[in-house]
């Protein structure tokens, strides 16, 4: 597969991506979110439930700015395979008694249709946490099909495919510190 970077463009396979949200804008937004979380979870037993792999950058940058001492748990959720569209099915595994009776914040990379996050929320409920909220780096409101409450989000974006800052296309591009958006497919 063709994988290439240029000054203003990333190429993966037949797809070309252009810069969309800068590193600076991302950092500023994360500072704002951390400020809210620090206020909302003051004196609470907070668990960051991080969905792998996509939310790693967002979660780590957020965690560095969160002053409340938190617990960390991870979960692997997968729905996309190597496509640009959701497979409509979510596979994942949580086995954590750590969530019981705690205030759980599910940290996601992106809420697209909302299937993944609503499935995770239902699963987390089984561990009877004190509260469950969602912090997602991105949300695509046009694609949302589930009635879910997203308390913290970084940016609302159009429905086009994005990569970088943890998000991938066919597993490539997670390392990019800028967010890129699909420009064209040849
Ligand atoms: P949902 O279940 O339809 O909400 O899809 C959520 C999952 O699909 C995310 O956790 C991502 O892994 C993946 N996803 C959705 N949109 C994008 C995108 O634009 N780029 C990369 N991954 C995406
Ligand atoms: Mg994901």
Describe the structure.
- By secondary structure, the chain is of the alpha/beta class.
- 21% of the residues lie in helices and 35% in strands.
- The protein starts with a strand and ends with a strand.
- Helix 1 crosses helix 2.
- 33% of the residues are buried.
- Inosinic acid is lined by residues 54, 79-80, 86, 108-117, 161-163, 167.
How many helical elements?
A: 3
Structural class: alpha/beta
Question: Outline, from the CA principal axes?
Answer: globular
Helix fraction, binned, reads 10-25%
Bound molecules: inosinic acid, magnesium ion
What is the average of the pLDDT values? Answer: 93
The secondary-structure element order is EEEHEHEEEHEEEE
Give the spatial strand order of the biggest sheet.
Answer: 6-5-4-7-8-9
Strand content: 25-35%
What low-confidence regions span 5 or more consecutive residues with pLDDT below 50?
none
SSE inventory with pairings:
Elements (H helix, E strand, L loop, with lengths): L2 E4 L2 E4 L2 E7 L1 H18 L5 E7 L3 H10 L5 E8 L12 E3 L9 E9 L3 H11 L5 E9 L12 E5 L5 E2 L15 E7 L1
Parallel strand pairs: 4-5, 4-7, 7-8, 8-9
Antiparallel strand pairs: 1-2, 2-3, 3-11, 5-6, 10-11
Helix pairs in contact: 1-2
Bound molecules: inosinic acid and magnesium ion.
């Amino acid at each position: 597969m063709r994988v290439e970077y240029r000054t203003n463009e990333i190429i993966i396979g037949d797809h070309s991506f252009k810069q969309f949200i800068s590193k600076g804008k991302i950092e500023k937004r994360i500072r704002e979110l951390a400020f809210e979380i620090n206020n909302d979870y003051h004196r609470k037993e907070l668990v960051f439930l991080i969905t792998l792999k996509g939310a790693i950058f967002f979660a780590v940058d957020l965690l560095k700015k969160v002053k409340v001492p938190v617990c960390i748990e991870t979960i692997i959720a997968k729905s996309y395979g190597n496509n640009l569209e959701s497979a409509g099915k979510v596979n994942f595994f949580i086995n954590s008694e750590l969530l019981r009776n705690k205030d759980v914040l599910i940290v996601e990379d992106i809420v697209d249709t909302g299937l993944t996050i609503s499935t995770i929320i239902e699963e987390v409920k089984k561990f009877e946490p004190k509260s469950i909220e969602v912090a997602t780096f991105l949300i695509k409101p046009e694609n949302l099909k589930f009635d879910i409450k997203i308390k913290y989000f970084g940016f609302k974006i159009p429905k086009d495919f994005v990569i970088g800052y943890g998000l991938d296309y066919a597993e490539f591009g997670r390392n990019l510190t800028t967010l890129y958006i699909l420009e064209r497919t040849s």
